[in-house]
Amino acid sequence: MKAEKMQRILEGNRLSCYLGILFSILLCVADVHAEGDHTNIVLIMADDIGFECFSSYGSEEYSTPRLDKLAEQGIRFENCHSTPLCTPSRVNLMTGKSNVFNYVDFGIYPNSEPTFANHFKKSGYATAVAGKWQLLNKDRGITPTEAGFDTYCLWNTPLTSRERYWNPSMDRNGEIMTLAESTYGPDVMTDFLIDFIRKNKDRPFLAYYPMILVHNPFPPAPNSANLKEKDNKKNFIDMVNYMDFLVGRIVDTLEALGLRENTLVIFTGDNGTNHLLTSEFMGEQIQGGKGFTHDYGTHVPLIANCPGKIPPGQVNDDLIAFSDFFPTIVEAAGVASKAVTNEDGWSFWPQCTGKEGTKREWVYGYYFPRPYSKKFDDMYNHWEVRYARDDRYKIYGNGDLYDTLEDVLEKRIIERESGNQQAERARKKLQKVLDSYPSAGAMIDYGKVQGTAKEVIN
Asked: Is the pTM higher than 0.85?
């Protein structure tokens, strides 16, 4: 009898414990799901496209009407800076930290670092990612599931081949998709996210869309007049327009589901335009700067739109760094504070809502995309470099100072004692910024770095 009584007590305690846990979970879910009490996040990042390729920024060569409308009805930032290449920008964006703290190698995500998706998932959000991954190889990196995404549809995982546009290779939740002939990859990714949004329309969600468009190669897009066109520039113009069309499809879905008022849509690019392309912009010919640390390699578009919270018609000149996206979407969603060490991102959500916010006086950059290259250059295999910039001047680790307004391509070093007092004040201020960061990458194994990469650090 005593044994039976003890068993009943234990079972009762166990049941009470389970009910208590369930009640706590329900309270959390109820809090997150409270009507009007959450903000959905749709974060879209195009691949290889600088600010000069958008009509909302003043281009007359490219047509991006849906993004123009998002900018008109929200806020357009004029001074957002990424890193110059895809993987570094993705790591920077997803961790909210400068690459100097956690960059490992090209195509690799540091698996010790939590992502914004991890953070939102813990806060009760449904999470999805579709597009380009490039953060995992067979030996190192992070899977989309480890990164906090409940579901995914991706190109550039260990399972996929190189085809990304026509007849693409797509990894959906760990299996290669069987697709119809003449399927266009970006359509598949967009359909996937639209389906995710529909399925989760009654709960908070985070949809991350690191787009495949508009990276090379440059085949004709579905909207191209000639599907056999060989001209890269003509096809690129069509790809930009089709990218805009896909953004519009997602916005239309949010509208149809009645989700626009409480959904923050952010659009940006991961780095400058491919160097093979030259664009007309404001009377100038701008050669794409992807891979280079000058402004044409880092100056990217940034548009934010949330009709219920962001006033329309705003244009903002504040400096924005890629480290700032993580804390911004966290503050916009009102989820728990981002708690990580070495963070250097500042939320620009107050600026989105029409407030002054914390205005950056500088942006810090660290770039060492392939640390274990056999040979280094000034582009995709760039030697280790660090720099700090304000809205005009930029200093590198070796002391070289440039005027980024008068000398965008950084051809003329401003010598010390030049007599330019404004430049000298900037030199002192920006040198303090450099000195406040580590002098080398925290996760780089310098014993394996070849050549003189470390010795020539700027």
From this structure: yes
